[in-house]
Design goal:
By secondary structure, the protein is mostly helical. The protein is built from 15 helices and two strands. The longest helix has 29 residues, at 219-247.
């Protein structure tokens, strides 16, 4: 009887499928802002913001070839265009411009703390999900905790660059939600790869042109650009979209509440930026909010799946054959 009770208690706190993949994606993304700071030492913001997509597009084309991925069809192309708008152009370019205009990596983490709320809103609009009141309460509490913590520690004074950061947050939320919805129809690695290849005719020529006009670059700047290109823009989305598709866009997005605290930690260790001693307390509070959001009910409206099923089943099977 005791073993059965223990098993019942364990199942009550068990995390949903996809939580680990989403957490791995967040860990990869948490280094993005510090890595961008390194890249900005020698590279211009447009080369970093667009060049990372141009470099990642080459990796994506190779990956699609190795995966023998079938071509997208019908409305999937439009969805990939929305994904590209959010994660290829929106967040990378706007966040890099914000850092170039004086925002610090720690300050930018404030806006990233609001990203899970934006993603959840887009999950309602684009992915047909309906989070419960308990979910919204946990999500908003976690976001409020992040903002309060960062403001109290002196890295959250709002500046003109915040307009760029807010734009980055909104476009990223849209790209995350649309990519998570599309990952129900094709594997996550194919979602980000096709999005990168779709806009490669723009990103690759721009990248080559900007590189040709760039002079000497240090090892730190090259390492920063390599990270945001290979991990932030490509490999990180393998795990992230897998988590969004398995756990649900709204629920999995709340794992990203931990990203600002991780970014503050990396900014302190790598860049020497200030991070207060209250990080541990804030991290514990965010963890509680994440766990509550993971356990909260999130339903999906009926029209979301039936609308896609007739188109996906037949062409998808033909593509694989």
């Amino acid at each position: 009887m005791r073993n059965q009770d223990n098993a019942t208690r364990w199942s009550a706190v068990a995390l949903p499928p996809g939580f680990g993949a989403a957490a791995l994606g967040v860990l990869a993304f948490s280094f993005t802002l510090p890595a961008t700071e390194f890249a900005l030492r020698d590279f211009g913001p447009y080369l970093i913001g667009i060049g990372r997509a141009g470099i990642a597009a080459v990796l994506a084309a190779v990956a699609l070839r190795l995966m023998r991925a079938p071509w997208p069809h019908g409305r999937q192309w439009a969805s990939l265009g929305v994904v590209a708008l959010g994660i290829v152009f929106g967040f990378p370019l706007l966040s890099t411009l914000a850092l170039d205009h004086g925002s610090s990596s720690s300050h930018a983490a404030v806006v990233v703390g609001l990203l899970p709320v934006a993603t959840a809103v887009f999950a309602v609009v684009r992915a047909g999900e309906r989070p419960s009141p308990a979910f919204w309460a946990a999500s908003l509490a976690g976001a409020a905790l992040i903002v309060a913590f960062t403001l109290r520690n002196g890295v959250g004074r709002f500046a003109p660059a915040d307009a760029l950061l807010l734009g980055a947050m909104l476009t990223a939320g849209l790209g995350y939600a649309e990519g998570g919805r599309l990952a129900r129809e094709m594997p996550g690695p194919q979602v980000v790869s096709w999005a990168l290849v779709l806009v490669a005719p723009i990103t690759i020529p721009v990248t080559v042109t900007l590189f040709a006009a760039t002079g000497h670059s240090s090892g730190a700047a090259v390492a920063g650009l390599a990270y945001v290109s290979g991990v932030s823009m490509f490999l990180g989305f393998f795990a992230w979209y897998a988590g969004l598709s398995k756990a649900g866009v709204a629920r999995a997005s709340q794992v990203q509440l931990a990203q600002p605290l991780l970014t503050l930690l990396w900014s302190w260790l790598l860049l020497g930026e200030h991070a207060g001693a209250g990080t541990v307390v804030a991290a514990a509070g965010v963890l509680v909010c994440v766990l509550i959001a993971q356990r909260a009910r999130v339903s999906r409206t009926a029209p979301a799946r039936p609308a896609a099923t007739p188109e996906v089943a037949s062409p998808g099977a033909a593509g694989k054959g």
